[in-house]
Design brief:
The chain is mainly beta. It has 3 domains: 96 residues, Quinohemoprotein amine dehydrogenase alpha subunit, domain 2 (Lipocalin), CATH 2.40.128; 93 residues, Beta Barrel (Lipocalin), CATH 2.40.128; 155 residues, Glutaredoxin (3-Layer(aba) Sandwich). Helices cover 14% and strands 44% of the residues. It is globular, with a radius of gyration of 22 Å. This is Redoxin family protein. It holds the Pfam family Redoxin. InterPro entries: Redoxin, Thioredoxin-like_sf, Thioredoxin_domain, Thioredoxin_ResA/DsbE_sf.
Amino acid sequence: MAQELQQGPWFGNLARPDGQVIRFHFDVRMENRKTVLYIINANERIKMDKVRYTKDSVFFELPVFESAFKARRISSQRWEGVWTKTTTAAPLVMPFVAETQMSVQSPALKPAVADVTGRWAVTFTRENGTTRPAIGEWQQKGNTLRGTFLTPTGDYRYLSGVIDGDSMRLSTFDGVHVFLLTAKINNDRSVSGGTFYSGPTGKETWQGTRNDTATLPDVASMYFKDGDEKVNFRFRNLDKKWVSLDDPKFRNKVVVIQIMGSWCPNCMDETAFLSEYYNQNKARGVEVIALAYEYSTDFDKARQSIEKFRKRFNVKYSMLNTGVSVGDTLRTEKTLPQFTRIKSFPSTIILNKKHRVAAMKAGFEGPGTGEHYEAMKKEFEETIDKLLRPIKH
């Protein structure tokens, strides 16, 4: 008989070959007599309800991404196995250990040497010596630390961790992002000696200085190349039917084009926002079209991933499969040749009622970015409202 997971709070631990362990939190509950897991990242709760048992093993998968765990029962308070994430190349695999939180003794934390709450200008340095900018947005309460990092192409979503004396740790796991960031706090103006661990092998160094007015370069923007001409395209939806902007459904409508992929964590945040916005505003003359760039060019395989994503957010707007892999260097030329290169997922194109470009934005500041998310929503809504106004003759 299968041994079910003990209910309550657990730690999940993903081990890297270099010995670093990326820890995340999850809860196990029984809902409608079914085992349900909730991965917890700060204010985010990711529900996993696809859980099954075979003898002494348990299998559970993420609700959106092609990401799953397989573990064997060691005791009622410990399971060991692997986490697997399907990618464009070989699957990404990391050893996985789950422990009930009551079975793990929490270390005593030293008082924080400084309060790092605020906005920080951050520089990441890759192993080849190249650098990239970011902005740290952190909120500290005692030894508890939460926040995110904004980059020119998106944010690192919900990060949570602790401060132990002069050491800080932030981590997250959402099915794609597997991040651990550590650093030394010099004072309330400077952190240094940081290391950013990503997935099983990714590693960069980083440092930061407090800067309330820090900004990021606009390196991910797209542009429309062909003057004032109308935008148009033709791709198949999840029912394999061809969809075009010339279809009656979109005629004389303001159209939001969402460039996305079901593998993309920031696309998850944007989809949650757009899905709610569309349901509340479609009667005003707004349509949304998602253009999906998946790992696979096989229609049915890509469709399964997109459909999983659609169900997770109960998407009512059109979702089209471009049929072009996200890894294809010619993905823009093959799908949206009127535009410069797609550099960021997600990216958003807003068309006026005549289907000419009114606004474009690369990346998406999700709810983990706090005030930036609120500012993004306000700008988006104001843009749409303006385009919906009657045209004066």
